[in-house]
Amino acid sequence: MVTTSQTARADGAGTPPGGPGPDGPGSDGVTPSPSYEPMSVKGPALIVLGLAVVILLGGVAAAALSSSSNPSFSIRHVTLDDGATVHLVPATVKLQAIVDNSEPPADIIGNLGVPRESKVTGVQNSDRHTAQFDRTVRLSSQLAQPQVTEAYRRMLHAVGWKVIYEGPAPQGVRGATEILAKRGSADGFYWEVGVVVSPTTPTGSTPYSVEVLETPDGN
């Protein structure tokens, strides 16, 4: 008997295993793509968020450190025992002539004030760039000698200096008084401020000087 192609189709003869059919692989003639799951974005997003938080906190810390090491003088005035009000300005306004190469440090010069009405009359550079910082500004005030002395004592106390001496000036004109104060700095040194106030002249002017110097230790 001769088998026809119709018969062969009827009994499945000649059809290779896994051939065309609704359930056979490649039934549509196209190789199926491998299955996959989309990558989660949670991991990268959390990393970016964490970096943002670190940067933010770092900025806040840097601002805090900058603020503490670079203070802005904020005492506007002091009131004396006689009721007089002495208005102050930052030392950087009146003592700018002695500031050189970041000395005195910001936490020293930034914690000093000068009576606003004082006028600069001279500058003395004692260290001459060969020794530890030691420079003096000479000024003149229309306040009386005791008022200048009290104004500096109150101001230095208010901004955290330790007054270590107040009395007759060991050096200077007869009758001069002195305020001596010290303060530690972030540069690792102690700094001193010496204010020598001369007696008020017959014309009502009070000469005085402000010396700023660096010391190797707290002694």
Short description:
The protein is an alpha+beta fold and 219 residues long.
- Give me the CATH fold name of the domain at 69-215: Alpha-D-Glucose-1,6-Bisphosphate, Chain A, domain 4
Envelope shape: globular
Helix content bin: 25-40%
Return the string of H and E elements: HHEEHHEEEHEEEE
- CATH architecture heading of the domain at 69-215: 2-Layer Sandwich
Task: Describe what this molecule looks like in 3D.
The chain is an alpha+beta fold and 219 residues long. It has a domain at 69-215: Alpha-D-Glucose-1,6-Bisphosphate, Chain A, domain 4 (2-Layer Sandwich), CATH 3.30.530. Helix content is 26%, strand content 27%. Mean pLDDT is 79; it is low at 1-27 and 52-69.
Q: What is the topology?
A:
Elements lengths: L4 H7 L30 H28 L7 E3 L5 E6 H4 L11 H4 L3 E3 L3 E7 L8 E8 L3 H14 L3 E7 L8 E8 L5 E8 L8 E10 L4
Antiparallel strand pairs: 1-2, 2-3, 4-5, 5-9, 6-7, 7-8, 8-9
Keyword list:
219 residues, Alpha-D-Glucose-1,6-Bisphosphate, Chain A, domain 4, three-stranded antiparallel sheet
